[in-house]
Amino acid sequence: KAGVTQTPRYLIKTRGQQVTLSCSPISGHRSVSWYQQTPGQGLQFLFEYFSETQRNKGNFPGRFSGRQFSNSRSEMNVSTLELGDSALYLCASSLGGGVVRYNEQFFGPGTRLTVL
Amino acid sequence: AQKITQTQPGMFVQEKEAVTLDCTYDTSDQSYGLFWYKQPSSGEMIFLIYQGSYDEQNATEGRYSLNFQKARKSANLVISASQLGDSAMYFCAIRGVDTGRRALTFGSGTRLQVQP
Predict the structure, then answer these.
(1) Choosing a second label site near A58 at 20 to 30 A (CA), which of A4, A46, B17, B101?
(2) Could you tell me what percent of chain B has a pLDDT over 70?
């Protein structure tokens, strides 16, 4: 079974631009979560999508948004990029049901975004 | 709110020796799951081991075991017979059961270096 894929793997943007990151979950997984990892703040939860609906949201400004398609693929968008948005963005997929153990999250390789 | 504390920023261990990585947590949830992930320099988060809050026995997965002490709110990871390939960042994380609390909350991580 193929793992979680994220595209692109590396991205360089300038301040003020916007960016869209893509995540394809493991086949059969309906939940996709996004995390931001920076040296200063560590790993922080952005949001989770389940069956095309945002189910959870972390404490990030409205410039960060996402969506999920009917095939469970998800995209994350960041508008008006700031220098502090430079980070590794990790996507994780899970089955999405109620049992914690069987909803372990499988992570993709991440997209490394650099904002200049 | 959920919180994970990892007090060891870095650890060294000799190849073939065992090492314990510390993790303490705080949560108001009655039911929760504790996870350990490994993150090599490539960036991908690799799931290692899971412990449910109501599991009576400590979890084991190959060379990994979790020393779970619920009353002390600790979930230390023990790696036996360390290998050079174990050199990486290790993150402890907690996750609730309720729909609104399923995001993983991570600790700051421990960088493990295995020396030959």
Answers:
(1) A4
(2) 97
